[in-house]
Design a protein that fits this description.
Elements: H1 2-31, H2 37-40, E1 44-47, E2 54-58, H3 63-95, H4 99-119, H5 124-146
Antiparallel strand pairs: 1-2
Length: 148
């Protein structure tokens, strides 16, 4: 019976963690939406020479640069939001005694930090520096917890 109870606690922690990460992503996309491709790249159709109708979609070539820059800036901002939120969740998870909530906070924190890093791979140097700082902070708190 105790093993079944531990299994349920682990399952609940993982399930709640998945839901929390999903809610965090939904909240970010709701309250801080990313740039829309169509806001930067107006599409227009070219009539077909044969058969009528629309054949091709053309773009102004400069639109890609504006959209890419806006998307990179957005991903950079999201990186810091996810990194900080993930760090806070992970540190809180270290100090919680309940197994389900340890898994919830630690797992969600780690997933958010990894998601932030993956979103910001185009901006490697600041991401690396921030990652090292977060790793050092989290390592310190882990060390404090396990040294006793």
């Amino acid at each position: 019976m105790p093993n079944q109870s531990i299994g349920i606690k682990i399952f609940l922690g993982i399930a709640l963690g998945i839901i929390l990460v999903g809610l965090f992503n939904l909240g970010v996309s709701t309250f801080y939406p990313g740039p829309e491709y169509n806001d930067y790249c107006a599409e227009f159709r070219v009539p077909c020479a044969v058969g009528g109708g629309d054949c091709e979609i053309e773009h102004d070539g400069s639109c890609y640069e504006g959209y890419d820059l806006a998307r990179d800036n957005y991903n950079n901002n999201i990186f810091y939001v996810f990194l900080i939120a993930g760090l806070v969740l992970a540190v809180v998870g270290l100090f919680i005694i309940n197994l389900s909530f340890q898994i919830l906070f630690l797992g969600s924190g780690v997933v958010l930090m990894l998601e932030g890093i993956l979103r910001n791979l185009n901006n490697k140097i600041p991401a690396f520096i921030a990652g090292v700082i977060v790793f050092a902070i989290l390592s310190y708190f882990v060390w404090r917890q396990v040294k006793d």
